[in-house]
Design goal:
By secondary structure, the protein is an all-alpha fold. It has 15 helices and no strands.
């Protein structure tokens, strides 16, 4: 137990150690050049954690490991729950049926496609494939973190998935403004998108929330509805992480029963933190808490998520990646192509029909 008498001191020191790294990551993410790139503290945190894991980890007492693991597991789940304070059900209603359908179609298709490509074509094991697919299909690093405890995956697999989110999410952040300015805005016919439609396209296909926010601000004279639609559709994808994890838990339970043959020996895996996440989002929809307090809660939540990400990075040794090859890159690339091209087609079809 992390807080048993013999482990308590090491656990507390480990948590404080992670918090120091997370504080540094938060500071770095706030620097103007880094902030302009749309890199969140979560991404900075895991990079710092990985650097530590492969350079300095032998100089830190082993007793601190319980605190590092606690940060990557327990603190993570709590942070995902209070992530619900970032959204309301009203936001989903405001964007309309178009945004909801694009979010639903892109989330489900990307997750299924990514899992299939990873396992069947590139030979990755299931956990890494699903973690990589969850990051691309839902909300980047936060979705990977939320999916990890459902799969009971090892930390280095989570780090692989997050690194793919960082790579292709960053590419998206620079690609989409170019697509809009050079192709979509001046185009007519099939390639043309209104600013409102392009906002839905951005929100429905880019990995991280921060990257979605950054894209409209990278387009000269971008209309307000573009940015608003992008954020709302993205947050619709975020809230869908809860039902996705519940369905994933049911699927894993069914698969285990089918393979084991003894249904009584297999318990249904229900990610209760995902259920609580929906409850918090529903509570937040009533606006019972003042906005300034909610903003403070969200800042605290970002810090806790940064701690969790940093802790996962601290458990990542490059030696664990040996033999993995380029399979994660190819898998993430396949999903990236689908998000950019398939997402464009889906957005055009949905917006033209509704």
């Amino acid at each position: 137990m992390a807080f048993s008498p013999e482990n308590r001191s090491g656990t507390i020191n480990g948590i404080l150690f992670v918090a120091i790294f997370a504080t540094a990551a938060t500071y770095i993410a706030g620097l103007a050049p880094i902030h302009a790139l749309g890199l969140s503290p979560l991404v900075i945190g895991i990079v710092m954690g990985i650097f530590y894991a492969n350079t300095l980890h032998n100089h830190i007492p082993n007793a601190w490991d319980t605190g590092i693991v606690f940060s990557g597991k327990k603190i993570l789940r709590f942070a995902i729950v209070i992530y619900g304070f970032r959204i309301t059900f009203q936001q989903i209603m405001d964007v309309g049926l178009e945004g909801f359908l694009v979010s639903l179609i892109m989330l489900s298709s990307t997750f299924i496609l990514g899992t299939w490509i990873g396992t069947k074509i590139f030979g990755m094991e299931k956990d890494t494939s699903m973690l990589t697919a969850s990051g691309a299909s839902v909300c980047g690093a936060a979705a990977v973190l939320a999916t990890e405890p459902v799969l009971k995956a090892e930390g280095h697999k989570t780090a692989i998935a997050v690194s793919m989110v960082v790579l292709f999410g960053t590419i998206s952040m620079f690609l989409y403004p170019v697509l809009y300015s050079a192709i979509i805005e001046p185009a007519k016919g099939l390639l043309h998108m209104t600013p409102s439609e392009f906002g839905i396209y951005v929100g429905g296909t880019i990995h991280e929330v921060a990257q979605v926010v950054a894209v409209p601000f990278s387009i000269p004279n971008a209309p307000v509805e573009m940015a608003n639609n992008a954020v709302i559709v993205k947050m619709t994808r975020v809230i869908m992480i809860a039902p996705m994890l519940i369905v994933l838990g049911i699927y894993l339970s069914y698969s285990a029963k089918k393979e084991g043959g003894d249904s009584s020996a297999v318990k249904l895996v229900i990610p209760w933190f995902a259920v609580y996440f929906i409850g918090v989002a529903g509570f937040n929809s009533f606006h019972l808490i003042p906005e300034n307090i909610v903003n403070i809660i969200n800042e605290i939540d970002t810090f806790l998520l940064t701690m969790a990400m940093t802790a996962l990075g601290m458990g990542t040794r490059f030696a664990k990646f040996k033999g993995l090859g380029l399979a994660p890159v190819y898998t993430a690339l396949g999903m990236f192509i689908w998000l950019v091209i398939g997402g464009f087609i889906i957005t055009k079809i949905v917006c033209s029909l509704i």
